[in-house]
Specification:
This protein has two domains: 408 residues, MFS general substrate transporter like domains (Growth Hormone, Chain: A); 64 residues. The chain contains 20 helices and no strands. Helix content is 75%, strand content 0%. The relative contact order is 0.15. The chain is mainly α.
Length: 496
């Protein structure tokens, strides 16, 4: 049997929750550097404070993907319980964030917020694959990307709108402006309402129906048994690499955030060793062994796309951390978070982020489907990534902040492609019964580059470009070029 073909109303309902989730992400991305600096953080400390977000995604998404593949709660379904849980926690975090009166409180709330957003977001990726036929995957992820763009426009531009409506955009040292405060509160309510809409207007296919569609569960023991045959040398080298990195950090006086990267290498080595021992003991249903087994046995196309994601998300995280200080210092003439010029620059960044997300929403429904039909998904993604690289590079030639809108058009096309093309390729190429875990594991290659940026970029900038954040845009442009080159190696089934 084939899954029923969804009409546009069905596609709308399936992905509308992502509109609210992206409002939360947009408020976080556009305003957390501003919140941290308003509470006393220096620009050199921003990467360390931001590291909570990607680290949380690294831990949460594979676990949620594994659990959601195996969940069935009757009328509530497989993925929707996780939508709802994450939405409740994220809404509460957004409501509490403006009440932060210390850096530690804001950092903890960022951790909770990002964990909650990831709990909701990860199953949404698999939800599209669950609900749609393969010939609708591109349309499904395009609609999802359009909602991501639309939600990000709302979340990014709201502080700017409130400022123009007379809400105070300035605050005393150690305080958060009312424009940001009210935006977080409204965003929390909008997030919960949008996710609730998807929960109430969709019905997931039962395990019996999925089997009738040919999406029967894969043999769970296979990746675990393959893991059992792996050598113990792999975990040893991960632990050794982490130890050497920690030693180098101590000896060469690198930024303290690099210790986190060393800890992650050691942790993965230890986890891999435990997983191998569990697999050899015949623990086929153990979650840790299953996740590590699936990770080590990724399909080839997923491995190649992983490298593309690595470079793509490195550029995006550089942008999210540094755009506010870059625009405030280089285009509004102030690096002081307490100044009116800096806050004006922060609001303009909200507008710029709204522009690139708005462009992404339009491009996802118009430009990308057209290019994909004409040239294929792989070439379309190469084009999108190069548009983003051009957008970042243009920061060095533009002098008027108004013209940065042109830069954001290129970034918006890249953002649309990054959100749609890899997932459309994967959803049609992976085992349908394991979409949750594979989408969660694919997120590792979204998160690891963010951790690298958070731990390494500060050291690079401090050593070579002190007090010159504009150079972060050169790094962003270069990594998108590398992503485009890596995409040339990806061969999509059915495309020449």
């Amino acid at each position: 049997m084939e899954k029923p073909r969804q009409n546009w109303a069905g596609l709308f309902n399936i992905s509308f929750g992502f509109f609210g989730i992206q409002i939360g992400f947009a408020l976080q991305n556009a305003n957390m550097s501003r919140v941290f600096q308003s509470l006393g953080s220096s620009i050199d400390d921003l990467p360390a404070l931001w590291v909570a977000a990607p680290l949380t995604g690294l831990l949460v998404q594979p676990i949620i993907g594994h659990l959601s593949d195996r969940t069935w709660l009757g009328r509530l379904g497989r993925r929707r319980p996780f939508f709802l849980l994450g939405a409740v926690l994220a809404a509460l975090s957004l409501l509490a964030m403006p009440e932060s009166n210390a850096l530690l409180m804001a950092a903890v709330l960022l951790w909770v917020l990002d964990a909650s957003l990831n709990i909701s977001m990860e199953p949404f990726r698999a939800f599209v694959g669950d609900m749609l036929r393969k010939d609708q995957h591109t349309a499904g992820y395009a609609v999802q990307t359009a909602f991501i763009g639309a939600g990000a426009v709302v979340g990014s531009i709201f502080p700017w709108l409130l400022d123009h409506w007379g809400v105070s955009n300035e605050a005393a040292a150690g305080q958060i402006p009312d424009t940001v405060r009210y935006s977080f509160w409204a965003g929390g309510l909008a997030l919960f309402a949008a996710v609730l809409w998807t929960v109430l207007t969709t019905r997931e296919y039962s395990p019996e129906e999925m089997r009738s569609f040919g999406d029967a569960a894969e043999a769970e023991a296979q990746p675990v048994r393959a893991l059992a045959s792996r050598s113990n040398s792999g975990p040893f080298w991960w632990v050794t690499a982490g130890g050497l990195l920690a030693l180098a950090t101590e000896q060469w006086g690198l930024e303290k955030e690099v210790y986190l990267l060393a800890m992650l290498l050691v942790s993965y080595g230890v986890i891999s060793h435990i997983a191998i021992r569990l697999a050899r003991a015949g623990k086929d249903n153990n979650m840790l062994a299953s996740i590590v087994g699936d990770f080590s046995g990724m399909p080839e196309i997923m491995q190649k796309l992983a490298l593309v994601q690595f470079f793509s998300w490195s550029a995006l995280f550089i942008m999210w951390i540094n755009t506010t200080p870059v625009v405030a210092q280089n285009f509004f003439g102030s690096a002081d978070p307490a100044s009116a010029a800096y806050q004006e620059g922060g609001n303009w960044v909200g507008v710029l982020f709204a522009v690139y997300n708005g462009v992404a929403a339009v491009a996802a429904l118009t430009l990308l489907p057209f290019l994909s039909r004409r040239f294929g998904k792989a070439r379309t993604h190469v084009f999108g990534l190069l548009c983003g690289a051009a957008g970042y590079a243009s920061f060095f030639v533009i002098k008027d902040p108004q013209w940065l809108i042109l830069s954001e058009i290129g970034v918006g096309i890249a953002w649309a492609s990054i959100l749609a093309m890899p997932y459309a390729i994967l959803a049609s190429s992976l085992p349908q019964a394991k979409l949750g875990i594979f989408m969660g594991l694919f997120n590792v290659f979204v998160v690891v580059p963010q951790l690298l940026v958070a731990t390494v970029m500060g050291s690079i900038m401090k050593a070579f470009f002190p007090d010159q954040p504009i150079w972060t845009m050169a790094f962003a442009a270069g990594t998108l070029v590398l992503a485009a080159l890596a995409m040339l190696r990806v061969r999509v089934p059915g495309e020449s």
